Backbone:
């Protein structure tokens, strides 16, 4: 009886899976008609996107346009309201968390603030994903690995430090070392240069390029830093109001006819916003003077 | 009006469903964690934070409960010439009701607040997302060790609280009010049964589980920002406190029914 039920369930699962794959040649990650709503607020509106293997895809767009929401959908940290997500030709948006965890270990994710675990040292942060999924026979293998990953991000000797003792740039580099601990096939970067000075930003850009050169990984970078985007991107995608409005290499983006793209890449405020600022009066007029208050 | 009530009901049902799913996932993850030796270091660490470091505050609370009961009850009993029965009154109150409930309330404040604040901060700084992004179940890694530690150590802490409550009552009754020591203990021994102590300790398992699950849930679902974390801590304490009292009532009814059914025939069993 139980065997018959299991067989029936297996057949049903196979039937469900029969329509859940696409050709691997389409790209390492494919999004099909992806929509994400929070209550009535549509953040991503019918997005279709193919991330090519071994390339760096940069997603740009103004703050609040849904860049972080989009990158979180690539490893299903957020579930889509509708649409499909494929990794290496296999549909992953309908998987449960246990199945997804097996997929997620093939990704590295650099969070905007680093998201290092405060209670763990740098070494423990870096070895965290390894300790969770693999057994290493000798402790010195951990030490070797930590040393190796820290040297890749230029932070040798920081093993015993805690995140609270590190600067913003150092935290991002440690987070990057943790993201590459499992030698991922894809690294996702959520605003890697935000909050850093131009020199530290360039260090992070060089690290992204170095990782791509040395490990041959696929990278997806979310940023609004155009200097960084031009430096690291093989392909730039611009999001606006939940839709892709531009897609191409840096030359294509620089010459894109869409006015929003031009405003964004040149960092210019649009005429409507300027009109609102002008209409609100001068700062002096809106200030309160002592005479405005009764004693 | 009906629309408003309906919308509210949908929100409440949604929250209840999410909490129910969280509890179910926690139960499964906790059972699996008990079976996997790799998670034991995480559980030991939480036992130290939740249990060992709570011992002083629980003992102080217990001692004062016993002492206050003695001060309050002595005059009433002495006016009837029953001051030697003070031990029964204090000890039965402490081991059966006041000890477990006050220990649990102290834990809800000390441990529950800390759990919510820690997990809430992890949530708003994307550390929980980071755990998930590395292919680890955050409920297994973060919630299960805390729930197991709370579940196992709340009864132990209640025993410490009871012990100090009894000693506090003895100190005030015998040392301060000069009640005969032999009479104090012999009336206590006659009035307090093993059942009463067992009821108090068993309540600890339920209180511990409730505190840990509610606090972790509030941490996992807290809103962004300092205000969000603060609000989650407040909500966690209020919900834990109410659930301790509700559980205490429900368990009192259940244990009373069990006692009246089985305790008189215990010698036959």
Residues:
């Amino acid at each position: 009886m139980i065997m018959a039920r299991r067989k029936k369930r297996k057949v049903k699962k196979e039937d469900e899976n029969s329509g859940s794959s696409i050709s691997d040649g389409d790209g390492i990650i494919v999004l099909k008609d992806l929509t994400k709503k929070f209550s009535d607020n549509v953040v991503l509106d019918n997005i279709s996107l193919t991330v090519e293997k071994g390339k760096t895809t940069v997603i740009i767009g103004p703050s609040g346009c849904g860049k972080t929401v989009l990158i979180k959908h690539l490893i299903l940290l957020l579930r889509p309201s509708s649409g499909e997500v494929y990794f290496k030709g296999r549909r992953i948006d309908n998987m449960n968390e246990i199945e997804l965890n097996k997929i997620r270990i093939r990704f590295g994710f650099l969070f905007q603030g680093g998201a290092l675990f405060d209670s763990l040292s740098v070494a423990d942060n870096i070895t965290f994903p390894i300790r969770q999924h693999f057994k290493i026979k000798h402790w010195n293998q951990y030490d070797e690995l930590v040393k190796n990953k820290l040297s890749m991000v230029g932070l040798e000797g920081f093993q015993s430090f805690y995140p609270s003792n590190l600067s913003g740039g150092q935290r991002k580099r440690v987070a990057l070392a943790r993201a590459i601990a499992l030698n991922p096939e894809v690294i996702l970067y959520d605003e890697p240069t935000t909050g850093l000075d131009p020199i530290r930003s360039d260090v992070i850009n060089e690290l992204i390029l170095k990782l791509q050169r040395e490990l041959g990984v696929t990278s997806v970078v979310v940023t609004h830093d155009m200097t960084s985007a031009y430096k690291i991107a093989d392909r730039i995608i611009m999001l606006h109001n939940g839709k892709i409005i531009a897609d191409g290499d840096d030359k294509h983006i620089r010459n894109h006819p869409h006015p929003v793209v031009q405003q964004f890449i040149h960092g210019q405020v649009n005429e409507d916003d300027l009109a609102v600022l002008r209409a609100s009066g001068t700062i002096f007029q809106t200030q309160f003077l002592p005479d405005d208050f009764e004693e | 009006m009906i629309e408003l009530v309906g919308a509210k009901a949908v929100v409440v049902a949604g929250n209840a469903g999410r909490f129910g799913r969280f509890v179910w996932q926690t139960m499964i993850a906790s059972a699996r964690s008990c079976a996997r030796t790799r998670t034991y270091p995480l559980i030991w660490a939480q036992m130290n934070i939740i249990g060992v470091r709570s011992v002083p505050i629980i003992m102080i609370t217990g001692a004062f409960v016993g002492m206050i009961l003695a001060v309050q009850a002595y005059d009433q009993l002495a006016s009837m010439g029953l001051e030697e029965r003070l031990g029964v009154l204090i000890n039965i109150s402490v081991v059966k009701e006041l000890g477990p409930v006050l220990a649990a309330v102290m834990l809800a404040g000390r441990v529950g607040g800390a759990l919510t604040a820690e997990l809430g901060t992890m949530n708003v700084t994307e550390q929980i997302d980071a755990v998930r992004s590395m292919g680890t179940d955050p409920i297994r890694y973060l919630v299960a060790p805390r729930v197991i530690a709370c579940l196992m150590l709340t009864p132990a802490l209640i025993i410490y609280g009871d012990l100090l409550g009894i000693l506090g009552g003895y100190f005030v009754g015998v040392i301060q009010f000069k009640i005969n020591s032999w009479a104090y203990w012999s009336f206590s021994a006659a009035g307090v049964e093993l059942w009463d102590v067992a009821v108090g300790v068993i309540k600890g398992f339920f209180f511990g589980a409730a505190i840990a699950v509610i606090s972790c849930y509030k941490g996992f679902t807290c809103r962004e920002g300092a205000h969000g974390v603060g609000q989650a801590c407040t909500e966690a304490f209020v919900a834990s406190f109410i659930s301790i009292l509700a559980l205490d009532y429900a368990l009192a009814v259940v244990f009373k029914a069990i006692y009246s059914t089985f305790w008189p025939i215990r010698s036959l069993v």
